[in-house]
Design goal:
Blueprint (H helix, E strand, L loop, with lengths): L9 H5 L11 H20 L9 E4 L6 E5 L13 E5 L14 H10 L5 E5 L2 H7 L10 H6 L3 E4 L9 H11 L4 E4 L3 E6 L2 H24 L8 H10 L3 H17 L5
Parallel strand pairs: 5-6
Antiparallel strand pairs: 1-2, 1-4, 2-3, 4-7, 6-7
Helix pairs in contact: 2-7, 3-6, 4-7, 7-9
Bound molecules: zinc ion (ZN).
Length: 259
């Protein structure tokens, strides 16, 4: 049995459910778990923790189960042992440690085969922005990435506790990258943990900067369509997002985090 860098046996990951297709390797699941912990630390460092706690989840593409941060654990304190398995099927039994908002993740994964990672948090600027009837604009680099790719869920501001409500969030998200949950928080998706985590940080910063601009009471400008396209191709290319993630992980490692 091989021992990974995080000190857990790869065999432990192999106990996770296999996908609907061929069985996934234990290594893929172990990598996912390690990256989920890294994402939790990064999200904590960028203000995504609150007392009510959000979640981050991820799946190996094509799997019919995903891993999600357990209930009653903050992003800051989450460790590999706090990642629990959850089925995409909302009628299947849940791990008792799964968070109450697991249905939110199930509904999005069911609706979006291209999504392999989800961050849901109650980050402050995202939450305030979601309470305004404002559209996210290309005011900042982050806004240029996410403008036009955000939905708004308004059916309830309460915790998403059941699948029927969660499907409304998936509908609000549509084919977009993120959704505001009015008076609740935000949801950011990605093809990978890197993309979802960097996206959550970007959404929070885009909202903060636009709120700052609105607060001045003065007219403000946005990037031109040509600049938006150029920024999406260069600043937010997949290789750039990978480099941002790597830098964020290095920053966390420098703090002596257990991830
Ligand atoms: Zn929530």
């Amino acid at each position: 049995m091989t021992v990974t860098a995080e000190g857990t046996a790869k065999g432990a990951a192999a106990r996770g459910p296999a996908g609907a297709g061929q069985p996934r390797s234990a290594g893929q699941h172990a990598t996912l778990r390690r990256m989920l912990v890294q994402a939790c630390k990064i999200l904590a460092s960028y203000g995504h923790d609150d007392m009510n706690q959000g979640q981050v989840s991820a799946r190996v593409p094509g799997d019919d189960h995903f891993q999600i941060k357990a209930a009653m654990v903050s992003f800051r304190s989450a460790s590999a042992g706090d990642m629990v398995w959850a089925p995409l099927d909302e009628t299947a039994r849940l791990d008792p440690k799964a968070p109450p908002e697991t249905a939110l993740h199930q509904a999005i994964y069911q609706a979006r085969p291209d999504v392999n990672a989800i961050v849901h948090s109650h980050a402050a600027a995202t939450l305030v922005f979601g309470a305004l009837d404002e559209e996210l604009a290309a005011l900042s680099h982050e806004g240029a990435w996410l403008a036009g790719s955000t939905g708004r869920f308004t059916a309830t501001s309460n915790t998403i506790l059941d699948f029927a409500v969660a499907t409304g969030v998936a509908d609000a998200l549509g084919s977009g990258r993120a959704a505001f949950l009015r008076n609740h928080g935000g949801v950011v998706t990605g093809e990978s943990i890197r993309e979802a985590a960097v996206g959550a940080l970007a959404l929070e910063r885009a909202c903060r900067l636009q709120l700052d601009a609105i607060a001045t009471g003065r007219p403000w400008h946005t990037s031109s369509p040509g600049d938006v396209a150029a920024k999406q191709d260069f600043i937010w290319s997949k290789s750039a997002i990978r480099s941002y993630w790597n830098a964020l992980v290095m920053d966390e490692d420098g703090k002596g985090s257990p991830a």
